[in-house]
Every structure is written in structure tokens, then in C-alpha cells.
Amino acid sequence: MTDYKKLVELNIDEIEPVEVSVFEEQRVKQYIMGRKKKTNVFKYIAIVASITIGATIATSFAVPSLASQIPIFNNIMSYFSDENSYNSNFTDVATDISQVKSSNGVSIIIEDAVYDGSSITVSYAIETDKDLGLNPRTSAMFDVQGAEGMGSTGTIEKVNETTYVGTEKITPIFNGSKPDTIEISWEPDAFVITETNESIIGDWQFAFELPALVNKKELVNQSVTNNGVTVKINSYETNDLSTVIHYEQTVEKHVLEEWPEVTVEIINVQDDLGNKYSVDGNGGTSRDNGLSFKWSSTIKSIDPNAKSITIIPVIYFSFGSGKGLEKKEMDPIRIDLK
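Above: the chain's sequence. Below: its structure in C-alpha cell form.
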């Protein structure tokens, strides 16, 4: 009997179901739906004259209890967000990526990603037959084509013995206007087990495109000066995911003579209705050795009924390398919403 005849005469009721992993399901989906077009691999060039600081001081990810055991590939970002975080409605606006790569017993799936016009947020998961520890780290950052530098922060959390979930937030720095669509690649060649510093080597390569969310920009141009440091809120941009606040700082020379490193972060945002917003820093750049910086921070979309927000910046004074760190809160800046 030919294979085709066997197939025609097959009794479906006699077929015994076989359990498959979530990654196998994704591979089938990827095969049926067709693979996304890959872009060329690219690397960013960091400008020596600029200082790029990733927002690692105040940036954190709130991880709710995993007891609920939500379906891993239905909403990975739920592991890393709460109702106050900017990515609380991430899945509503995210672009479906659904790319899976496997190597050396480790499979990675990139589920969703969002580009809000300032930063990219990516959610992914790992299925492995190896113990990667509690919080493994990757060997390579995500790359953005055309960016002259980048800030990045992220985390990987263990869900069970074989599964991890991860998220990464990348803030690319462009020389000039930001593109409406960006091309992203990621080529981690190892996962590092934090507890032992052991590396799990493999070959995983991803490439995809993301359109920017539609943003509405409002100019602010309000400033405050304290302790020889001036902070100016230039503008804010709103979209379906978040509100991005753009600001800059300038430091008087005599302050830098005492404190070689001075940075400002927004740590508190509250509207006139009493709503408090968790602030996620995006990092900043300086092209004049720290005399001035340009920064941005992200909060969730502001309550549409709010008429104003109040922002409190904080100055961090440092001798460098984390030595002699002091912080001072600045006067609040009240912004009338339009």
C-alpha cells in the first residue's frame, strides 16, 4: 500500500494524541504562516566623543507572583509588568514577531516587540534542557541599524526547570531624526550562568522590523535650577503604549570640578488627580564631557482626565565608579497638559 493510500484510509479516531512543547507549536505556526523576511545583520558604531549612560540606577522590572502560571507564549510581558508600569498594555499594541531559533539544546522565541518612537521593548522566552541558573545573562545586546549608540537594560527570570522568560528595553541614539521603521538584529552566541560564570555556547540569530507607534508631541520648555544644575523639560510624547518625557540637564563648571560625574533622573511623576506613575529611565547622552546631557524617561499613558502632571528630578553627584555618591531632590516642575 502506498503512503498516499495509507493517508487516505487513515482512521483519525484511532490516532493517539502526542504532547508537544510550546516551542514545537510555535515552529508549526511559523511554518504554516510563513517566515518573516530577514534583514541583513548590522552592528552599531559608538561615537567616542559622546558619553552614553544606560538607565540602570533606577530602572527595575516588577515581577508579580508566578503562581498563576499564565500561558508562557500568550503574554510574556505579564511576568514583568503591573498596572502602574508603562508596559501594562504591551500586548495590545505590540508587533507579533514569533521567531524561534534552536541551538545546543536551547530554544529562544521572540514573542512581541514595540517601538514607541524612543525605545524598543522586546519580550522573549527560553526553553532549555540545561540549567541556566536563576538569572542568566546573554552575551550580546540587540542591535539597531543606523544607531550611533545604545542604552539597554533587561532581565531573564526562571519560570520552571526548563523555561525562562526575558525582556529587554533598548534605547537607540540616532544622529538626526528618528526613523519611522527600525531594523533590529540579535545574535547571542552564549548564555552565561551568573552563579558559576559558565557559558552555554550556541548559535541564535534573529532579525526583524518594527514600525514606530504614532506619537503626539507637546512642547513644554520649563526648567528648574538647584545646586548648580539646571533641568529643562523640553517636551513629552504620547502614544497608545506610553508617555515619553524628554529633558536635558546643564551643569555649572565649578560643580563638575568637585563632582566629575553629575546626572539627573526623574523619579517621581504624579498628576492632579493623585495618580502616581512608575518611571522607567531610558538613559542619556553627552557630547561635551558631562557639561550637558539629553535624557528621556517613560511612564504609562497619562490619565486622559488629568489636567497637569508634577515632575520631581533628582541629581546624582559622584566621583565616578560609584564612589562618593550623593543625591539631592530638585524643586518640582508642574506641567499643564494640552
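The mean pLDDT is 81.
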